[in-house]
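Whiteboard transcription, Tuesday session. T.W. wrote the structure tokens on the left side:
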């Protein structure tokens, strides 16, 4: 018969810590942050396209409207000589005057059977956020045809 030897446990036989509660907490935090996060629409989701020359022959010609964004964020509508200042940079991302002006323009263009077309000319020093605000206003009004100048 064999004798048993009493041995002391070595460090290798020490119990390992249980990692399953740590994994549970990680998954709970992940679920919490996914549920608590707000989804912000990306600017690339705006459906803007280049204008297509489709109009009925008997409808009147409606010119494209020109929107200029100045260095300081002020927004003007119209040509060089007859520009109408609408919204200025005051920290607000809403452009109520531009929106009402574009609502009238889009309604007139659609009543005439043509597609409302907008030319956006931002200054080289204008902020990118201000340009995105103008594009968001165009999308809110329903104008999907916008052009930009060649720099």
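and on the right, the sequence the group agreed on:
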């Amino acid at each position: 018969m064999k004798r048993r030897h009493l041995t002391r446990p070595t460090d290798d036989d020490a119990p390992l810590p249980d990692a399953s509660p740590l994994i549970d907490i990680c998954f709970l935090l992940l679920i919490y942050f996914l549920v608590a996060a707000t989804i912000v629409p990306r600017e690339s989701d705006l459906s803007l396209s280049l204008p297509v020359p489709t109009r009925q022959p008997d409808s009147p010609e409606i010119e494209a409207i020109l929107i200029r964004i100045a260095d300081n964020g002020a927004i003007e509508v119209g040509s060089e000589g007859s520009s109408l200042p609408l919204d200025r940079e005051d920290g607000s991302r809403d452009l109520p005057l531009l929106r009402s002006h574009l609502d009238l323009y889009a309604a007139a263009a659609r009543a005439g059977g043509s597609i409302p077309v907008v030319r956006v000319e931002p200054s080289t020093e204008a902020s990118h956020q201000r340009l995105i605000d103008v594009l968001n206003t165009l999308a809110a009004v329903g104008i999907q045809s916008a052009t930009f100048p060649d720099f």
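Someone added at the bottom: The mean pLDDT is 78.
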